[in-house]
Design goal:
With 228 residues, the protein is mainly alpha-helical. The protein has helices spanning 5-22, 26-29, 33-46, 61-82, 87-99, 119-131, 137-146, 151-170, 187-195, 205-224, and strands spanning 104-107, 110-113, 181-182, 185-186. The longest helix is centred in the N-terminal third of the chain and has 22 residues, at 61-82. The model has no long low-confidence stretch (mean pLDDT 89).
């Protein structure tokens, strides 16, 4: 079994759920997920030291990883959209592509050998493919490797971000009433702490993490006056 296989169905189901939470008619809305990938790819490039005309600090690897997690949300959505929200069919198609074990990408009649490409060139390629309404899982896998992330690392961070997105929606994020700083830290910092305490193989991982966030948020409200 591939490292991703045991977790892929879970991530697809969670992605379909959050898409439905934002808009129950998301499949018919036919959102431009590729444009979202483009924007996140460009944000990832901005996190890298690419501007030769000015001095910048070294690449922020942690921020790059966060951008990849966001890109993965939209990548999952492209496959789900193509299969009209059917998670089983989307999983089957994604696993078939992974099983090809591609080492190169062909785009605009050019062949790109992934092992020979630096991160910035890979991000350029990701953005270009997204502009042409395409994604490539081998390219994404290669970017994970460059950022020293395993598929288990991605799963952990994806679960966390997905649950946090649900939590935000349920606590007034869309209405602008959500308080994102509690227990004297940003909500994503609280999330990281809770992720270390969660069993990734639990069949009820989403609910367990959500309940942990809820408990921590409510406790902060008691002592800090956070409106919940």
């Amino acid at each position: 079994m591939m490292p991703i296989e045991s977790h892929l169905s879970i991530m697809l189901e969670l992605q379909a759920d959050i898409n439905s939470r934002v808009n129950p008619e998301w499949i018919g809305a036919n959102y431009n997920w590729y444009r979202a990938i483009q924007v996140k790819g460009l944000e990832a490039i901005e996190m890298h030291d690419w501007k030769w005309w000015k001095q910048r600090p070294a690449a922020d690897i942690n921020q790059l990883r966060m951008e990849l997690v966001d890109i993965w949300h939209f990548t999952l959505s492209t496959f789900l959209q193509d299969k009209y929200g059917n998670t089983a069919l989307a999983s089957k198609e994604m696993l078939a592509e992974f099983n090809l074990q591609q080492k190169s990408v062909t785009f605009d009649n050019k062949h790109f050998e992934l092992a020979q490409m630096p991160v910035l060139d890979k991000l350029d390629l990701l953005v270009g493919l997204a502009a042409a309404k395409r994604v490539n899982l081998a390219l994404f896998d290669s970017l994970l490797t460059d950022c020293e992330m395993s598929w288990t690392d991605l799963f952990k961070q994806y679960i966390g971000k997905n649950v946090l997105n649900f939590f935000r929606q349920d606590h007034g994020y869309k209405e602008g009433t959500y308080v994102d700083t509690w227990d004297y830290r940003k909500d994503n910092e609280n999330l990281i702490e809770l992720l270390e305490q969660i069993d990734l193989e639990s069949s009820n991982i989403r609910d367990e993490l959500y309940e942990s966030l809820e408990a921590k948020y409510a406790l902060a409200a008691m002592f800090e006056g956070v409106i919940v």
